[in-house]
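Appendix C: a fully annotated inverse folding record. The material below is reproduced so that readers can follow the format used throughout the book. The structure is listed first as tokens, followed by the designed sequence.
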């Protein structure tokens, strides 16, 4: 039986990487998937893949740096399918966009990082959680990072934003406990994505290593994760099996952070 049959899922940053993998995994479990990203081409590819396999998907191109877009996205999903049952906050800005020591980090990059990685999940939660509580069922899943547990060299804004979003979600979990709504985080380690490729190249160069050698030693298990390694945990937390789990953060990191 499909674990998410007829559930309405909203996934941000769904055009590629972890977001795309989660969107496809949700579809595989019977959910209707509203996919949000800036790139229309990537969204159209995802929707075509789901539609051609007999599923239901909705592409919503949005620039989430515009705070008004959060409310518009939720309203568009509601108009198409009704209230959001599952929110996945995955869209994010990584340190690879501007790696630098904290003392040299431009304030505008700090602001952009916290906006997308922390404020957008806050605004989307405000837009969907009241209706979840009213219906006595809902799931909020945020893709944080192991950088939300430890500092990140030359990644102050990213690490601060991920620490912040974990605090936000734990508070939201406490405030919604007992209402049928659960709120959790997934903390990936290094995952093979376009964004992480740039960070890997930066660190390898900084350490005077070949990218292949650096990557092979990144985790105790060996190498990097792939987006499909993250999706099963999202499915678990989104379904009935996860009904007693809230306020938690799960490391999926190849053993890089054992806590």
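Designed amino acids, in order:
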């Amino acid at each position: 039986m499909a674990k998410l049959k007829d559930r309405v899922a909203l996934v941000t940053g769904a055009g590629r990487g972890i977001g795309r993998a989660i969107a496809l995994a949700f579809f595989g479990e019977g959910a209707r998937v509203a996919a949000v990203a800036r790139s229309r081409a990537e969204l159209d590819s995802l929707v075509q893949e789901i539609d051609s396999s007999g599923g239901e998907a909705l592409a919503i191109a949005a620039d989430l740096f515009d705070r008004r877009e959060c409310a518009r996205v939720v309203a568009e999903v509601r108009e198409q399918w009704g209230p959001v049952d599952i929110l996945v906050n995955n869209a994010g800005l990584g340190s690879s966009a501007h790696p630098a020591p904290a003392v040299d980090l431009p304030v505008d990059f700090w602001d952009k990082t916290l906006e997308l990685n922390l404020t957008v999940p806050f605004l989307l939660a405000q837009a969907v959680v009241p209706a979840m509580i009213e219906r006595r069922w809902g799931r909020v899943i945020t893709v944080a990072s192991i950088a939300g547990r430890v500092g990140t060299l030359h990644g102050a804004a990213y690490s601060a934003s991920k620490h912040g979003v974990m605090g936000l979600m734990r508070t939201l979990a406490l405030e919604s406990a007992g209402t049928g709504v659960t709120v959790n985080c997934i903390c990936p380690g290094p995952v093979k994505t376009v964004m992480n490729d740039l960070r890997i190249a930066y660190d390898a160069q900084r350490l005077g290593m070949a990218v292949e050698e650096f990557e092979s030693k990144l985790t105790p298990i060996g190498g990097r994760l792939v987006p499909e390694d993250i999706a099963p945990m999202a499915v678990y937390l989104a379904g009935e099996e996860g009904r007693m789990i809230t306020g938690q953060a799960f490391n999926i990191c190849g053993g890089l952070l054992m806590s």
